[in-house]
Amino acid sequence: MRFNGSCGRTDWADQRRLPRLGDKRHNTDASISGFARACFRFALDCKQDLWFSTKDTISKIYDGTFTGTITVGNGTLRVSASQACGTATIKPTYKDSRIVFAAADGVFPNDIQLAANIQTSGDDGKQAIRFEKNTKLTGNITSAYTLELGLQKANKPKVEYWGTVTKSSPSYCMNVVPQGINEFHGKVVCKSPQLDYSGYLNLAQAWSGNGVVRFYSPENEIGRIRMYTAAVECMAENVLNNTAFCWEHTDGGLNADGYQVSSIYMNSYSQRIMALESKLVNMTYPEGNGAEICSTAPVTLTILGHPMTGGEAWICAAVSHMRIADQVSVVVDAQEYPEFVQTFTNRAHTTSGDLIASNGTLRIAGTATFANVKRVCVAAGGTFRQDSTADGALSGVTSLEVDGKFVVGNGCKAGFSDAGIALSVGPGAEIYFAEREQINVASLRVDGKDLPSGVYDSDNLPQLKRGCLRIQPTPSSARWTGNGGEDTSVDNAANWNTSPVDLVTGGLMATFADGGDTATVADPVAFNDLSFVAASGKDGFTFVKGGASAQVSMIGSTMSFAAGEAAHRYAFELPFGILGIQMVSLTLPDADTLRFGGGLVVRNGSVDVKGQGTVVLNGESVIGGA
After folding, report:
1. What number is the average pLDDT over the span 488-507?
2. Which residue in 78, 189, 372, 480 could disulfide with 100, CB within 3.0 to 4.6 Å?
3. pLDDT 10s digits, 207-225
């Protein structure tokens, strides 16, 4: 290689011995940007179209610098033709930068990188990225600042995001302001390590949002979704991975796009979320309308919980005003946060799914009801609290399984139907019914064993810490003498006449014949309600003891005696007990006498004696109640 110096000197160098070769060009990024800016300014001044033509097979780096990035400065980039930006990366760099996609059914492979904290507004037309027509984006969108995506209100377009949409900074929010349909087919990343306002994905600000947002990817990483009037549709299992939902909208009915406001349509896909929250503690909705979580096919909404701490108290309350509807089962499984409490309040929930507390607490409060729920299950690590003051809050429940803790709050009732439930109790269970509340159960299984009919409280059922259980009695085989012929078994209906004395309404179905005034009890028997009518020509009715274990018990709440012209004497010459914690109303007409000759046992209940008759206590009586 020969070098000719300006002084006339010539030098030779052996190219093979040089350590490296270098190439230097004067076309730097700054000079290319300056040239491009000058071209744009000239075109704007002359009001002429500006075209760029290149053959990038010769100088790929140089020519690619023109087409690889589109920088949006203090203005708006309006894209009116499909793929008009080629494959360039679009970079808004100023606080007033805007991008508008206005191509009908446009397809754009561009990556969009927001490099500035763009001043945005939820108002129509002022979003950082705005869509006026149906659009499909296949590139990725990233922002270290607030990211706002908006759809034109008039056209209500459909926008498909097939790339990843990332809001990378935990200190800013992502705002999606839909006026039509937003479909996130790719992954959405919007998280914050703090449980406060920062890092939210806001779905439709209150001043301008309707429509629906659809999520397709189970890889989504969304810390919180803050909902106003837009709805959410789940298009696959677990697309709401560990997301907390917070509602701030109180109007009922359908939004302008035909969706229930602020609702989650699960569409047959089960989801695992962090919590359900509301900004206002006392939010109310018109019943039959308003926000709800729904699925016409059976699905499970699993709530994983959070630490119940954060910068703003309302965020961490985990109090939901959303109606659980259709066939959605709710499971609270806060294994990492055992102190977590998910509360449902002030709505008439219509779901027929199950309510399950596996870990943490599932709580009903305010005036909430779950009248269509058939099954409530409380696992060993869970707690179920019934703090609703509404009548019949759990009136549809037919099966209650308790291995953990079931609690009815002060001033509330369990709200079960009087028809009775099937109750299963584990060895470590704790059940707290309301003070002086007696629950009817059709069956009681404790630690895998069925218990016989009767009344149970803390004395004979250690798991029952408060209140009382009554197992509905089954027909008894107790034998009676003194009426009805030679065979006096209550199982033989031919021996009994239905008119004069109706002893039982419920479990033990026996009615004594005309002329009878005595019943001999050989075995323990339990009645629901008792009513007496003295037979014609008789002055009363007497139960006598016919066996060592004989006794009569009441598990209902009414004992009545028909008034007659003459005084009547009624007697229980064997132990008589009130087994429950109920108040028994005993109405005794004037001049009548009721004698408990074998003793009266009232351990927890109470007796309200009405009328002017006389009650006589003999034998060993125990009055532990009132």
Report:
1. 40
2. 78
3. 455 788 999 999 999 888 8
Place of tokens 């003999």: 618
Q: Is 236 helix (H, G, I), strand (E, B) or coil?
A: coil
List the one residue out of 357, 345, 377 whose CA is nearest residue 276: 345
Crossing angle of the two packed helices 60-68 and 29-46, in degrees rounded to 10: 50
Q: Please provide the DSSP assignment of 442-462 as one string.
A: EEEEETTEEPPSEEE-TTT-T
Cα–Cα distances (Å) from 207 to 211, 451, 585, in that order, read 13, 60, 60
Can you count the helices (H) and strands (E) in the chain? Answer: 2, 61
CA angle 129-130-134, nearest 5°?
Answer: 125
Measured CA to CA, the distance from residue 488 to residue 478 in angstroms comes to: 9
With a cut of 70, say whether residue 80 has pLDDT above it: yes
SS (H, E, C) 144-159: CCCEEEEECCCCCCEE
What is the dihedral angle through the alpha carbons of 110, 115, 117, 122, rounded to the nearest 10 degrees? 0
What is the C-alpha to C-alpha distance for residues 142 and 614, in angstroms, rounded to an integer? 87
The rounded distance, in Å, linking the Cα atoms of 134 and 155 is: 9
Residue 469: closest CA among 581, 624, 583: 581
Indicate if the pLDDT at residue 315 is higher than 60. Answer: no
Rounded CA separation 458/249 (Å): 46
Question: What is the C-alpha radius of gyration for the chain, rounded to an integer number of angstroms?
Answer: 39
Plot region of 46 (φ>0 → left; ψ -120 to 50 → alpha; else → beta): alpha
What distances in angstroms separate CA 87 from CA 50, 176, 186, 270, one per listed residue? Answer: 19, 24, 19, 38
In this structure, which amino acid lies at residue 467? G
Measure the CA–CA gap between 19 and 40, rounded to whole angstroms: 44
